[in-house]
Amino acid sequence: MITVEFLGPINKAPIEMEADTLADVSARLKEDTELTQWLEKCAVAINDSMVSDLSVLLKEGDRISILPPVCGG
User: Fold this and answer.
1) HSE of 60 in the Cβ direction (CA atoms, 13 Å)?
2) Where are the domains of the chain?
3) How far apart are the first and last CA of the chain?
4) Per-residue pLDDT of the chain (73 residues; tens, 9 = 90+)
5) How many CA atoms are closer than 13 Å to the CA of 64, on its beta-carbon side?
6) Model confidence, pTM
7) Could you please report the per-residue DSSP string of 47-62?
8) 2-67: what fold?
């Protein structure tokens, strides 16, 4: 089981799911129409390390963070 957390203005509660790869997580999240507007522009981290390869293998207890773009000032 892995946990997916949504940071910032995405405003969605964390979810737990079974997934072997980040591609599995992506496919599952794309089923949620509220998330589709965010997914293409967000960065992704696994256990606080940024990743971009959807073939990354996941292990029990991993934490996936969906990070929306932010503005600074």
Assistant:
1) 0
2) 2-67
3) 38
4) 999 999 988 989 999 999 999 999 999 999 998 888 888 889 999 999 999 899 999 999 999 999 998 755 5
5) 32
6) 0.89
7) TTEEE--TT-B--TT-
8) Ubiquitin-like (UB roll) (3.10.20)
